[in-house]
Amino acid sequence: MLTVAVEGASWLLLLALALCFLRIARGPTLADRVVALDVLNILAVSYCALLAVASGRAVYLDAAIALALVAFLVTVAFARFIERGHLREVRSKEGKPDASR
């Protein structure tokens, strides 16, 4: 029964992965692509957890935790990058010099 559940979850993760790649390729804005990359990271963490359940080895959970921490830092970095770009656009419209350099 566990094998069927793991296989079903693997197929669902694969479907979600395909939809994520579609959103990354077709995302109209940078924010859409960043959210899709964040979901992609969540799917990778989920797959590591699924491997831990399927194999019975806890080492995959350690990898999932490390990957989740790195994914969080990447998401924060992308958010700061987007915000800086937004501030530059606002300042250029107002005619103020860019002080973020």
From TrEMBL:
<comment type="similarity">
    <text>Belongs to the CPA3 antiporters (TC 2.A.63) subunit F family.</text>
</comment>
<protein>
    <submittedName>
        <fullName>Multiple resistance and pH regulation protein F</fullName>
    </submittedName>
</protein>
<keyword id="KW-1133">Transmembrane helix</keyword>
<dbReference type="Pfam" id="PF04066">
    <property type="entry name" value="MrpF_PhaF"/>
</dbReference>
<keyword id="KW-0812">Transmembrane</keyword>
<keyword id="KW-0472">Membrane</keyword>
<dbReference type="InterPro" id="IPR007208">
    <property type="entry name" value="MrpF/PhaF-like"/>
</dbReference>
<keyword id="KW-0813">Transport</keyword>
<keyword id="KW-0050">Antiport</keyword>
<keyword id="KW-1003">Cell membrane</keyword>
<keyword id="KW-0406">Ion transport</keyword>
<feature type="transmembrane region" description="Helical">
    <location>
        <begin position="34"/>
        <end position="54"/>
    </location>
</feature>
<feature type="transmembrane region" description="Helical">
    <location>
        <begin position="60"/>
        <end position="82"/>
    </location>
</feature>
<feature type="transmembrane region" description="Helical">
    <location>
        <begin position="6"/>
        <end position="22"/>
    </location>
</feature>
